[in-house]
Amino acid sequence: MANKLKAVVLAAGKSTRMNSEKSKVLHEILGKEIINYLLDSLIACDIAETDIIVVAGSNRDEIAAKITHKVTYALQREPLGTAHALLAAHEHLAGHDGELLVVVGDNPYVSAAALQKLIVSHRQNQAQCTFISAVFPDGPPPYGRIIRDSQGEVRGVVEEKDATPEQRQICEVNASIYLFDNRVVFPLLARIDNRNAKKEFYLTDIIAILQCENFKVRAVQADDCDIAIGINDRRDLQAAQDSNCPMRPTITGSSPAAAPTDPRGIDWTMPASRPAESARTGSSPCSPVCRATSARRPKSISMRALHSAAA
Questions:
Q1: What CATH code is assigned to 5-310?
Q2: What are the backbone dihedrals phi and psi of residue 193, each rounded to the nearest 5 degrees, phi first?
């Protein structure tokens, strides 16, 4: 079916920074698990429950016991990065000829309205990859920086640990919310390698691969940068519980007619805050993928080699 939409939720991460044995996505905000807020937004976008694939690791049974929807599960046997986690869902995606939405499971602030904006932009531009970016005018968090050329076109994403001092000054960051043409993107995942500081397979590297193959990549700037924050540690969790926190999801019985709401009565409307600003760089693409032939790069393995060895 044309434009059939599936979603993958990456939820295999451990709760190291939470200093907890409980999976990070299962920590609660206002009595509800983080991942269940996210799943509600996906379902509000008319994605069927069985078309939502939750990628989990050793925490699969723990997560399945708390998820309130009849989703599909995939197993990431080793925590080798976000691209590796997506490839773990190959059984459910290899033959999918529609669109693929990929989100991280620890972000309860992803609204259905933001996802719909992403979907509309992706389809209007007929892109092979569209992702949400966020601009932090007062200084970005330690997330992947969006590399743009002098015309403002996206050329790649460089993770914080791999960025140059100049790139770290870029205020536009990746919110880790992607919409792909699965027929194009999924076969290219095997080309991602782990030549980076953390020796992980970054899903962000797919952007530069698509650029090198002349596919269309677009970034949609979020109306509010808070969508990129997510829940990383106990401080973030406490902030989400705080009634003074502007991102706190508010359980409402009714809401203003103009405000988009979740059908379950959760108002995700953000207050007016910093205006989005353009964060562009005139430098040439700095993609670790496009520079794959550099002799100075550390030794690495590709996911193609990894999966061949596993087979």
A1: 3.90.550.10
A2: -120, -175
